[in-house]
Amino acid sequence: MYWGFSPPEVPEPTFLENLLQYGLFLGAIFQLLCVLAITVPMPKAHEAEAEPSEPRSAEVTRKPKAAAPSANKRPKEVAKKRR
């Protein structure tokens, strides 16, 4: 009797199984990149360049303009003339 050890017969993975395996692998890499992007601080170049320049006082202190009256709200005089 020969009691040799042979590997069990495993069927070849199908196309969909391969697609699922690689998709899960790429998804895991994407998640790791997202976690690293959140945890690793990046230097902000635009803030460093904005500090030496002069503050824009005219643009910063400008108040927003009042909203224009809407089209459905007419002055009372115009409504009285049409009666």
From TrEMBL:
Localisation per UniProt entry: Membrane
Membrane topology: Single-pass membrane protein
Key words of the record: Membrane, Transmembrane, Transmembrane helix
Location of the region described as Disordered in the Swiss-Prot/TrEMBL record: 45-83
GO cellular component labels: membrane
Membrane-crossing segments per the record: 20-40
Composition skew (Basic and acidic residues), residue ranges: 45-62, 74-83
Keyword Iron included in the entry's annotation: no
Primary location group: membrane
Top-level taxon: Eukaryota
One of the Pfam families matching this protein, by short name: UPF0239
The keyword Transmembrane helix is annotated on this UniProt entry: yes
Annotated family: Belongs to the UPF0239 family.
Protein name per its UniProtKB record: Protein MANBAL
UniProt source species: Sus scrofa
